[in-house]
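Summary for the lay section of the report: proteins are chains of building blocks that fold into shapes. Here we show the chain for TetR/AcrR family transcriptional regulator C-terminal domain-containing protein and then a coded description of the shape we predicted for it.
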Amino acid sequence: MPSETSGPRRGRGERAGLSRGRVLDAALQLVDRTGLKGLTMRALGEELQVEAMTLYHYVPNKDALLDGLVEQVFAAAAPALDHTDTTQGAPDWRAALRGYATALRTGLLRHPAVLPLAASRPAATPAALDDVEASLRMLTAAGFPLDQALHVLNTLSLFVVGHTVAEAQLSGDPGRPGGTGWLAGLQADRYPLVTRAAREGLGVDDAERFSFAVEALLLGFDALRAR
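The coded shape description reads as follows.
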């Protein structure tokens, strides 16, 4: 029997207050707590206090639910793409892409369980494709041919996801092989620059490396656009 505190679960016909957005929000919260293995329709139904079958009115299958999780994280970064240069009255594509990359990294680090999905599932929902279309409009208006605009958007997104995956996997004990403590203990006469960098903590800040790489990409994109 349901407890007095949780209340009875709603049946298939009692979907008051539910929406696709609410289902996806609950799924993201569940994944944050339990990981992807804990995401089942039954568990999600328990989270929302509805029968599992009710969820199929909002997400037709498990693949649609997983696509929706990716959409949630990417959509949270999309507002950063709406960046207008007040002096020119037109979108500042560099600032927009810089802000998007930073916001996407932040969102992925906040929801690390979604990282495997972000690395393997392309934009497939209408909302995600709307953001892609808007980004391509901005880039083509800035002078990128359509094929280059696609390369710019895909390259940046893949870099952000890959960098964030590496951050999530490499964080941990600095004494592990390849860690700063381990590198600092190498033979200084053979690896003077490596050991010095490790001792002084040079080049190890993830956010600093990320920003450096994003700026390098933007400079390269701009050079290719001008050419």
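Put simply, here is one thing we learned. DSSP finds ten helices and two strands in the chain.
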